[in-house]
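Supplementary Note 3. Input sequence used for the single-chain structure prediction.
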Amino acid sequence: MKNLEDIMNLAAEAGLLKRVKRSGWWVVGIKNPESVADHSFRCAVIGYILAKMEKACAHTVTMMCLFNDLHEARINDAHKVASRYLNYTEAEDNAFRDQIEKLPKMIKDELGDWRNEYRAQKTKESMIARDADILECLFQAKEYSDQGIPQAKLFFKKAPSFLETKAAKSLWKSIKKWDSSKWWQKITEFKR
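The predicted structure, written as discrete structure tokens, is reproduced below.
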């Protein structure tokens, strides 16, 4: 197959996301926040579930979630303070376009189509993928808050207002009341 080196290079870039930290958490005092890869993985899981709840194409939503932040391997993750001063949308699109440029046409075209669909926010799948991105951040904020970092709750104020789908809004209502430190306790209870 042609382009194997280009495919391997993209996989290496994706691996770099395991070391790129989600910088928005530094603003609220989290010293070692999760990586972009951590975020992207859980975002994809949430996206899949939301797509099923909304009766949308789970494959498309999951793929949008997985590839949404790939550009951050080249330009890093920018928190909202930095984004106020820089045109990150243009930089993200340029980086992503360069990342996929040398891939086989069928892969390049599909990734580009998902990216454009996500950016346009006109399809059910693109709105679900964005909701998954927001919900993943809200899940993380709840976990940090439950771990004793009260500033993480600042994300609860504005982020939920951007949720579009019924499923995402419903899940958000439950997240607010949920104790993120308890999910594993029932699993590990001693059984006789």
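The chain has a mean pLDDT of 94. The CA atoms of residues 142 and 153 lie 7 Å apart.
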